Amino acid sequence: MIDSHLHDRLGRRVTLRPVDDDNWRAVADVAPRDDQRAWVPALAARYLLLTDRTDVWTSLAVYADETVVGHVMWGVDDDGSRWIGGMLVDAAEQDHGVGRAAVATLAQWLAGEGGGNPVRLSYHPDNAVAARLYTSLGFAPTGATEDDEIVVELVTLA
Ligand SMILES: CC(C)(COP(=O)(O)OP(=O)(O)OC[C@H]1O[C@@H](n2cnc3c(N)ncnc32)[C@H](O)[C@@H]1OP(=O)(O)O)[C@@H](O)C(=O)NCCC(=O)NCCS
């Protein structure tokens, strides 16, 4: 379990846990709002298949107390940089502070275990909520883009 002792605005403890035999169905069912499907798949199941089919990514279940409320994944690029991807909070659980706590928790963990390698992620420029969230957590643009997305890097953990 990855636990930075952060809570959402409902007072629930937000933790990141391995996807296992007990929780994978709940993680697979995590779904965005319909209007967010331009940026993310219709279900987190797609991310689980991706992490299962490649060696690059590792999926994690996002928990609020003992309830699965989201998905996030991490990976290591050829240059050693750590990447965060697949950040998805279930539509019914959004805007309660889960996303902020989950990204902060994973970024802090990756910065700690990464031996000084940068922590990066990317988002679509039209995704205003994601842009504001990542900027406020201390990510800044590297100047690079990837698949039409803006690449940002953790500068200071806010
Ligand atoms: C982006 C996402 C992960 C954020 O998760 P979340 O739990 O809703 O976010 P939080 O509640 O922690 O809020 C983060 C910030 O976004 C703002 N926010 C969240 N939902 C919002 C909404 N519907 N409209 C406006 N602002 C919103 C919050 O006000 C908050 O800002 P603050 O901390 O300065 O107050 C979530 O919206 C999501 O899953 N979106 C669809 C998938 C996606 O876009 N993933 C990112 C791909 S890079």
UniProtKB/TrEMBL annotation:
Q: What stretch or stretches form a coiled coil here?
A: none
Report domain N-acetyltransferase positions.
Answer: 14-158
- Please, which domain of life does this record's source organism belong to? Bacteria
Recorded hits in Pfam families, A to Z, give: Acetyltransf_1
InterPro entries xref list: Acyl_CoA_acyltransferase, GNAT_dom
By what name is this protein known? GNAT family N-acetyltransferase
Q: What is the lineage of its organism?
A: Bacteria, Bacillati, Actinomycetota, Actinomycetes, Micromonosporales
